[in-house]
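Please, structure for the following, as tokens.
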Amino acid sequence: MLHEQGEIAVSASKGPEDGQVGAGPHDHYSLIARGLPLPRLARTLKPQAVHCAVTSVDVNGRLADRRPLQALGWFAGRPVDLVARDNVITVTARRGGRWTINRQGHLVLPSSVRRSCGVERGHRLLVLAYPDHSVLLVYTMGALELMVSRYGVREAA
């Protein structure tokens, strides 16, 4: 742990034997330029901040993988709302939600949502669960392809 003392940062460990700054080649003292700003490190997501899964859809619209729902703490009977837009389905838990997590703990995409996103039996979907925000995002492979192609074109330019 460092404590700033004027222009000298002193470490919590002991310094040189005689207490002189810079007395040895391996001392635990360093000079800090006064007034220079410290760099801000980029904030990264905690590994637990998002749970990702690629899962398939059965003939009734049921998502096979329950782990994203479990990461959110959503179990059988939980009411949810679904909004489909641009091949992305946003699912939020909401009291009085129009749909519920089924008895087996799976999310079933209603046929109207599947039709609007072009999701059919056997299709694979990327499911992202954000426990800190209590939201589940479902991306079709078409949405992923579009995102990747836009990113690739932007990076190549």
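Residues 141-156 form the longest helix (16 residues). DSSP finds three helices and nine strands in the chain.
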